[in-house]
Amino acid sequence: MLLSIAKKGQSLFLLSFALFALGGTLLLKLPGMTFHGNLAWIDAFFIAMSSTCITGLATVPVTEFTLLGQIVIVALIQIGGIGIMTLSASILLSLGKGLSFSDTLLISSLNDNFSLRGTEGLTRTVVKYSLLTEGAGAVLIYAGSLLKGDDWLSSLWNAVFLAVSSFCNAGMAPYGDSMASQHVLSRIGCAGLIVFGGLGVYVIYDLLQVVKKRRLSMRIHSKVVLFTTVFLLIAGTVMLKCAGLQGGAALSWADAAFLSVSCRTAGFSTFETGTLSDTGLLTVMILMLIGASPGSTGGGMKTSTVAVAAAAIWNTFLGNTEVLMYKRMIPGANVLRAFSIIVIFLLMTYTASVTMQALAPETDMTAIIFESISALTTTGLSLNGTTATLHAPAKFALALFMYIGRMGPFTIMLFLLSREKRGQLKYPQERIIIG
């Protein structure tokens, strides 16, 4: 029964995002959405897909859209960030109907860390946490805009837009230069929202249970995610600072720290990313691939996936035959899934890069690889505005890669869960020579 419900959930998830992207395309094609006439169909489709998949890549700058057009974009971002199924569940709860048993099974089948009894509480937490965090971040961003000297009315809308885009890790900004000219207070608010949106609702739910003293300590998953997140933020900042810019120019600590936060699926920048040194670009691409955490608004391979793989390697060096983390043994199935997801993501990156190079042979290969990773990990960073220079076939392919990147990890996880089975027979072991 759980398997059939999981498959139903997968189909609903895939179809709902596709329908919202198509609906957004039609809305963005309406008159009055941009300041310079109607969008081309491919641009409307690309922006709608990028917004729904909370990627942030854009063929047309957000500043080209009218208030009505920006409202459509931010609505698609919010829907994509919270998630279609979670949003639907919250609507049922707000109507006082509660979740049916089949709906509860549908959501709980996506994660084995929460009981059926706690699913409704988890769903409520998703919506409340998202809206409250976005509201707090918007206040901070608004204050920064006022200190910068912007008028109060435009600052208010820009703060709301940027708060939703930051928390959902979408990377779209209502400014022409992303976050380059914004006040330090706005940058702090944006960075904070990115981190809180990227932790994942499972970690937030777990932390709230500990604060409310319903649990004595956090689950291992939460500890792994928090440690890995902090480690990546610090390590990324140091590596980007040491790598510097092209020609040996120095990168400020503030810019390095912001990019370390943003490049793991958010996509904002305080300077032109194309000015990074080759080492800096490689560092950004690795961080983009790692991405955010499970159950978050971000994409990528996920922090816990990489942490489990790293723990397996470390335990191998220590001579352990089992993978141990925080004095707990990690099941072999989890380790296999982690390495499987990493390999699949690398294969997806190779396939996307080769496809994009074939469709845009005039584009530099480094920019192609960077753009492909950015789309698959739903990051939204682009080298020197490469996205806007692509022809229609390449734009369409990149939009599909954004969709695959957003849906892929979810689909892979469900597929691996559905294929898991306990064998009735035990076969004799035989070693294979490695290395």
Set down the secondary structure blueprint.
Blueprint: H1 2-28, H2 41-52, H3 67-82, H4 84-94, H5 101-108, H6 119-148, H7 152-167, H8 184-199, H9 201-211, H10 220-243, H11 253-262, H12 278-290, H13 303-317, E1 324-325, E2 328-329, H14 332-359, H15 365-376, H16 386-389, H17 392-419
Antiparallel strand pairs: 1-2
- Overall geometry comes to globular
Total beta-strand segments: 2
Q: Specify the biggest β-sheet.
A: 2 strands, antiparallel
Task: Please state the structural category.
Answer: mainly alpha
What Rg do the Cα atoms give? 22 Å
Mean pLDDT: 87
Count of domain modules: 1
- Helix content range: 55-70%
Lateral strand order in the biggest sheet: 1-2
Strand content bin: under 5%
Distance between the termini: 43 Å
Number of helices: 17
Query: Any low-confidence stretches, pLDDT <50, length ≥5?
Result: none
- List SSEs in N-to-C order: HHHHHHHHHHHHHEEHHHH
